[in-house]
Amino acid sequence: MLASPWRARRRGSCLEASRRAWSAGRTCARLAGVAFALALAVSPGVAFAQAEALLDEGKSLMKKGKVAEACPKLEESYRLSPRSATLLALAMCHEKQGKVATAWAEYIDLGAAARKEGNKRLEADAKARGAKLELSLPRLTLSVPRAAAVEGLEVTLDGAPVDGALWGQARPIDPGQHKVSASAPGRKPWEKSVAIKRGERKTVAVPALAKDASAAAQPAPAAEAPAPAAPVAAASEKGSAAAGDGAAGPGKGAAGPGKGAAGPGKGAAGSGKGAAGPGKGPAAAEAGKGAAGPGKAAAGPETDAPPAAPPASEEPEPSSGSAPRHTGSFVIEAGVAGGALIGLMDSGSFGDLSAYSYSYNIPEGELIAPCDDEVCHASFDPAIGPFAGGEAFIGVAISEDLHLGARVLGGYRFGGGYVVVGGPSVSMRLGRVWLGLSGLVGPVGQEAKVTGIKGEIPSEVVHLNYGRSEVAVNAREGSLPESALVETLAFGGSVDVSLVLADLPSAGWTSGALLLSVSPTVMKGLDGWVFAAPASLGYRFY
């Protein structure tokens, strides 16, 4: 009875202490939560302030011409706070620094961001800046021929792996020095440095990597074989699965120096000296000198022998999609054409001339001779008129920058006439411009004003006709047509100048470029000259 009040007081004091501890813990938790919330609230503000300071500092350095110092600060500012204004400044800095490919990609990203923000003015500005840079982008093509595309081949550009789907494609790259390297298992690595200028196009061909004899001589590590469940009672020689020469025995197992595997042969399953050694035991000689898989013991001299490995000289089948897109491929260009056709054909025929006659002096007097296409011809005024039609080029890519084939130009001349010419053609690319030469031959016809008809005088009576070799035909007034179609077979050539409006390389059949071309053409007809000035808009598939 005396102890009850004391126990009650003690229980009360314990409860009070528990309440105080719980209250203190709750207070600490609240303080921690408040501190964490403040940290979350302050952190973005601090990052934004740092980004603003770096942006201002980068712009200031850029105005002073210190782009090498300005660009890293703008990069860090964009990392801390990715905003369109910062990305614009960063792209302009990289453009001034000469990293045109990097700036071009940033302008594309800026246009996409501005479109999401609904800022049409910034989107248009980004597109205009990107389009201006695109005309001067250097492009590098990594060509991997079929013979070089061995299994496990890895191609890197400046240390970054290049996906196999991008092999053979012209990719934008910053001007300057770059390093291309290639490596593959069991092959010697290869690398090459290439310098590329603004607007230049280059192709680097990866050669077939030489075999690495030192790598091929090193055996593949074998997995540790599990110990046999029980010794083989019938083992008769070393290398059996019995204790001492078992699969897990040191130096004599599956990974040992040639004394692994059951059976009367030594080293039949060994992956060390048994694999390449002189063949200790008949089983080793018959099963490829110990080339069996690691850790698997056989039960007899030739039981469960693994299949022989393919000869080391055999090459793996290269991938079919690794051939370059350009070299050796067919090239087809088609487009619409239009321009001016100028004919200086002063003579020709316009059909049946037998209705006309002419006269000239002979010793006996005056002779009236009938006309035909051999002795009479019409004369025409020069004719100029527009024409519209199409042009085409079919050939093969000798290299990425040299195409050889044939060009065809055809069209209808408004007011009457036509042009259909074609012949061999060669095109060479110089940056964003293709220059070509074409030899042309074909018929040309156009409607021209008839000025009269003349007949030939035989050479033996020229002296009787005041030295004239031809004379005007007696044509009744109004009998001559006002105009007629004059035709001739013309021979000549053209100089083709094409500007690449858009280069659209891809792995599909649509890979090619959109070209705007002009082709000044000069041809000599059988009766006069023909000049053409066509312009065309076409797409060249390659």
Describe this entry's structure for a reader.
The protein is an alpha+beta fold and 542 residues long. The chain contains eight helices and 21 strands. It has helices at 3-63, 67-80, 84-97, 100-117, 120-134, 213-217, 273-276, 282-286, and strands spanning 139-143, 154-157, 160-162, 170-172, 176-183, 190-196, 201-205, 330-344, 347-348, 357-362, 365-370, 376-380, 383-399, 402-413, 417-430, 433-456, 470-472, 483-504, 512-518, 521-525, 528-541. Strands 8, 9, 12, 13, 14, 15, 16, 17, 18, 19, 20 and 21 form a twelve-stranded antiparallel β-sheet that branches. The protein has a four-stranded antiparallel β-sheet with strand order 3-2-5-6, with no helix packed on it. Helix 3 (84-97) runs antiparallel to helix 4. The longest helix is centred in the N-terminal third of the chain and has 61 residues, at 3-63. The model is unreliable at 1-11, 38-42 and 222-325 (pLDDT under 50).
Please identify the structural class as seen in this structure: alpha+beta
Strand elements, count:
21
What is the average of the pLDDT values? 75
Helical content stands at 25-40%
> With helices defined by DSSP (H or I, 4 residues minimum), what is the helix count?
8
Assembly classification: single chain
Low-confidence stretches: 1-11, 38-42, 222-325
User: What integer value in Å does the Rg equal?
Assistant: 44 Å
The general outline is: elongated
For the largest beta-sheet, the strand count, sense and barrel status come to:
12 strands, antiparallel
- Our measurement of the CA-to-CA distance between the termini, rounded to an integer number of angstroms, reads 108 Å
Q: Spell the H/E element sequence.
A: HHHHHEEEEEEEHHHEEEEEEEEEEEEEE
- Strand coverage percent: 25-35%
